[in-house]
Amino acid sequence: MPRSGRQLRIAAHGYEAVIASIGATLRTLTFEERDLVVPFDADAVRPGYRGVTLAPWPNRIVDGRYSFGGAEQQLALTEPERAHALHGLLAWVEFEDRLVLDDRVVLAAVILPQTGYPFRVEVEVEYKLDAEGLHQTVTAHNVGADAAPWGTGPHPYLVAGHGRVDDWTLLLPASEVLTVTPDRLSPVGVEPVSQHPKWDFRSARPIGDVFIDHAFTGLARDGGLAEVRLTAADGRGVGMAWDERCPWVQVHTADTPAVAETHRIGLAVEPMTCPPDAFNSGVDLVTLDPGATHAASWRIFAL
User: Do residues 59 and 285 lie in contact, with contact meaning Cβ atoms separated by under 8 Å?
Assistant: First the structure.
């Protein structure tokens, strides 16, 4: 068994993807043999959260503490350098197969009641390829007796083509950015990107040396869809689109200056159902009542 779990390969219309069962992770995605996301080896321990499914929360819960339903909770601090609980509880969970077809797979896992999250939620993850690209849908079903807080999102690192993040052009139709503290990246407040021109990519422009690790909102939509586009010098690239179920998107330039081989090699684009620390702020937080379901989806496609 490879370190990243079972390898589920799907292909259609020039696209090919490999899903690793640990974390329901998008390990590779290509179009006509061109990488659209930063891949990793099947027998590698997944680098960070590359391609993982984020649930039952995306991003950070500050100090790992929150209150829900009148009870105080303390989660494990899975981002120890900043003392936060990061990216949910399923990153290292083995998902089971529900359906495996040539162009579609469905995986599932159950979040069991545990310290900091005493709720039982079944999570189903579908990956499907068609002529429009790779569609991912995450569906939560509260199979417990109590209402549960919920949020989700993906964590792909998009690749436009040759070079690194600095060489690519970004279109990000977001009018607002969530500012954060410089040390722990804890949320401060939502401000217009017009006040922070370096993070204003409403008109496509080169990323250059700009550092980004922020959540954006105020998304312009066409037909209900928000769309991010990342292009290389030759005009080719990769896009990502999602609907109103995700009013937020986290963007990160993958800065690892101490590790040259991973430094700014892909742009993380993470549509999110809620912003960082939503378990405390309550902003766009989903409350899953017993028996209730919630689904969110997004799509990655070649340009």
Answer: no
Of residues 170, 240, 247, the one with CA closest to residue 212: 170
CA–CA distance, 206 with 87 (Å, rounded to integer): 28
Q: What is the pLDDT of residue 83?
A: 97
Query: CA end-to-end span of the chain, whole Å?
Result: 34
Q: What is the pLDDT of residues 157-175, one digit of tens each?
A: 999 999 999 999 999 999 9
Contact residues for 53 (Cβ-Cβ < 8 A; gap 6+): 23, 24, 25, 90, 123, 125, 136, 138, 152, 154, 155
pLDDT tens per residue across span 181-203: 999 999 999 999 999 999 999 99
Cross-strand bridge partners of residue 157: 268
pTM over 0.70: yes
* Residue 23 CB contacts under 8 Å (≥ 6 apart), including other chains: 5, 46, 51, 52, 53, 90, 91, 92, 93, 95
SS3 of 201, please? coil
Distance (Å, whole) CA 134 – CA 167: 25
Q: DSSP states of 96-109 as a string?
A: EEEEE-SSEEEEEE
CB 184 within 8 A of CB 213: no
Rounded alpha-carbon distances, angstroms, from residue 72 to 78, 139, 164, 299: 18, 26, 43, 36
Q: Is the peptide bond before 257 cis (omega within 30 degrees of 0)?
A: no
Assigned token pair, 91: 């990153």
Confidence check: pLDDT of 48 > 90: no
Q: Are 100 and 128 in contact (CB under 8 A)?
A: no
Does residue 90 contact residue 55 with C-beta atoms inside 8 Å?
yes
Measuring CA to CA, how many Å separate 269 from each of 38, 102, 291? 12, 26, 31
Q: How many Å apart are CA 155 and CA 58, to the nearest integer? A: 9
